Amino acid sequence: MYRIAVTSEKGGVGKSTLAFNLAGALSDRGKVVLVDEDTRIQSCLTWAGLASVPFRVLSPEQTRQGVQQADFLLVDSEGRPSRDDLAEMVGSFDRVLIPCGVSRLEIGSTLALWRALKDPGGVVRVVITKAPPVGRVGHDARDALRAAGVPCLDAVVRRYAAHERAAEVGGLVRDVRDDRAGEAWADVQAVAAEVVK
Ligand SMILES: Nc1ncnc2c1ncn2[C@@H]1O[C@H](COP(=O)(O)OP(=O)(O)O)[C@@H](O)[C@H]1O
Ligand SMILES: [Mg+2]
């Protein structure tokens, strides 16, 4: 079982959106279980309750009985994990994805977080999210972080209304009726391809 955590120190960066859709994209490659550890907001549990998705979403209590026979275990972490919690995740997951927006402040705080974390196993990857679909802002943010030594995925998740629509109606962004749903889904698939590489 390949264990992936999606986490960040900040809320609202697109953690749940990425975890949920990534669970959908990885379902093409194996059996996926997604654990919604954000017990306050429960985004993933809510979205899965609104539409049909090709994976199971469990609460932390449900996983206490164990997660059987999944190929991928994804965790949407609690809203604001402490640095100790983050360090523990880095020590216990195969991949830790940290979404980061494109603003100077977000890039700065991600850089500070990376410098505070120890990652001897090389499991951490920052993934740029909510990048403007037009222009190079997302790629520039990624390249700036890389230049500072932060490991980043090549894939950049662009900002599309289709993601917000999916958050309203539940389900995966690929199933939303929106002209740009295909582009939004392509970004998620690119993340999935890199995560399993
Ligand atoms: N790629 C994206 N494009 C557009 N909106 C997004 C994207 N990712 C997330 N959002 C929106 O940003 C808000 C916060 O996203 P969410 O996934 O709940 O963040 P977190 O789990 O980090 O708090 C939601 O309204 C969501 O629809
Ligand atoms: Mg969330």
Describe this structure in a few short sentences.
With 197 residues, the chain is an alpha/beta fold. It has helices spanning 15-26, 43-50, 60-63, 83-92, 104-116, 137-147, 161-169, 181-196; strands at residues 2-6, 32-36, 56-58, 72-76, 95-100, 124-128. It has a single domain, classed as P-loop containing nucleotide triphosphate hydrolases (Rossmann fold, 3-Layer(aba) Sandwich), CATH 3.40.50.
Mean pLDDT: 96
What is the H/E order? EHEHEHEHEHEHHH
Cα end-to-end separation: 15 Å
Report the helical percentage. 40-55%
Shape: globular
CATH topology: Rossmann fold
Tally of helical runs? 8
Give the CATH level 1 class: Alpha Beta
- CATH-scheme architecture: 3-Layer(aba) Sandwich
CATH homologous superfamily, by name?
P-loop containing nucleotide triphosphate hydrolases
Order of strands, widest sheet: 3-2-4-1-5-6
Alpha-beta classification: alpha/beta
Query: For the CA atoms, what is the radius of gyration?
Result: 16 Å
Strand content: 5-15%
